[in-house]
C-alpha cells in the first residue's frame, strides 16, 4: 500500500471524526446549523438523531484508523477497503436522499481513497 493511499484514507477518517464532533457535540451551534442547513428549532428537535448519526460516523473513522494501524498489511488493506466502500455508499445514499453536495464533500475524498487503494 502506498503512502498516498494511507494519507487519503487518513483524510477520510479525519473528516468523519469532524462530522462526529459536529453531529454529537455541536449540533445546535451556529457552525453545525450552517454546515447542515438546519434552523435552531430543527436542530433542537433532531439533536438525539444527529448524535446517533455522529456515532455511526465515528465507527467509520475508527474502522479506517484500525485498517491503517493493522499490523498485517494485507488485512489492513482489506479493512480500509471495506470502510472506504461504506463511506462511498453512505455518500451516494446521502446525495440521493438528502443533499447532492454530500457526494462532493464526503464522497469525493472516499472515492479518491478507494481508487488509490485499488491501483497503488
Mind explaining what this structure looks like?
This protein is mostly helical. The protein has helices spanning 3-24, 30-36, 40-45, 47-69, 73-97, 101-119. α1 runs antiparallel to α6, α4 packs antiparallel against α5 (73-97) and α5 (73-97) packs antiparallel against α6. The mean pLDDT is 96.
Give a summary of the structure in a few sentences.
The chain is mainly α and 120 residues long. The chain has six helices and no strands.
Beta-strand percentage range: under 5%
Q: Which structural class matches the secondary elements?
A: mainly alpha
The main pleated sheet reads as: none
- The parts where pLDDT drops under 50 for at least 5 residues are none
End-to-end gap: 6 Å
Per DSSP, the total helix count is: 6
Mean pLDDT, rounded to whole units? 96
Give the SSE string.
HHHHHH
Rg measurement, Å = 15 Å
Classify the helix fraction into a percent range.
over 70%
Q: Count of DSSP E strands? A: 0
What gross morphology would you assign? elongated
Amino acid at each position: 500500500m502506498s503512502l498516498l493511499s494511507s494519507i487519503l484514507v487518513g483524510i477520510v477518517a479525519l473528516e468523519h471524526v469532524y462530522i462526529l464532533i459536529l453531529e454529537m457535540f455541536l449540533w445546535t451551534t451556529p457552525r453545525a446549523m450552517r454546515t447542515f442547513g438546519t434552523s435552531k428549532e430543527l436542530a433542537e428537535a433532531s439533536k438525539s438523531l444527529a448524535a446517533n448519526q455522529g456515532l455511526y460516523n465515528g465507527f467509520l473513522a475508527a474502522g479506517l484508523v484500525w485498517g491503517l494501524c493493522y499490523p498485517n498489511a494485507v488485512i489492513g488493506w482489506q479493512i480500509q477497503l471495506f470502510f472506504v466502500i461504506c463511506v462511498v455508499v453512505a455518500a451516494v445514499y446521502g446525495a440521493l436522499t438528502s443533499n447532492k453536495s454530500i457526494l462532493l464533500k464526503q464522497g469525493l475524498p472516499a472515492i479518491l481513497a478507494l481508487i488509490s487503494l485499488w491501483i497503488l
